[in-house]
Design goal:
By secondary structure, this protein is an alpha/beta fold. About 30% of the residues lie in helices and about 20% in strands.
Length: about 110
C-alpha cells in the first residue's frame, strides 16, 4: 500500500508533514506551521499523544523505497516556488534509489 501525505514549508526552509497549515486542530496550538523552525516544531505534540509532527526527511528516512509515497506540496501565502525548490532538494538525495518508482509529488494551487 502507498502513503499519501502533505508537506508544508517551515520558516527555516525545512518541510513538515502535516495536512493543516495551523496546528490548532492537530496539536491544540494556535500557530501556523510556516512560522516555525524544525527545532520549534519538535516542541509540539499531536493532540492526546507524545508523538511529534515529522519532517519530510524523517518520513523519507523511514519509508524511502519501502512504500509508494504520494506527496502533496501545500503552499501558503504564495510560497509555491520556495516549497517546490525545498522538495526538489530533498528528492535529489534519493534519486539514486529509482525515486520515480516510489515517489510522486504534486504541487497544489489554491485560489
Amino acid at each position: 500500500y502507498g502513503i499519501e501525505l502533505d508537506i508544508h514549508l517551515m520558516k527555516d526552509g525545512n518541510l513538515a508533514v502535516i495536512h493543516d497549515t495551523s496546528l490548532k486542530r492537530t496539536a491544540g496550538a494556535d500557530v501556523k506551521i510556516t512560522e516555525l523552525t524544525t527545532e520549534e516544531l519538535a516542541n509540539y505534540r499531536l493532540e492526546g499523544s507524545e508523538e511529534t509532527i515529522p519532517t519530510f526527511r524523517q518520513v523519507l528516512e523511514l519509508y524511502a523505497g519501502k512504500a509508494p509515497l504520494i506527496v502533496e506540496l501545500k503552499p501558503v501565502d504564495g510560497n509555491h516556488a520556495a516549497l517546490a525548490e525545498a522538495a526538489d532538494m530533498i528528492d535529489a538525495r534519493y534519486r539514486r534509489m529509482e525515486i520515480e518508482k516510489w515517489l510522486a509529488i504534486r504541487l497544489i494551487f489554491k485560489k
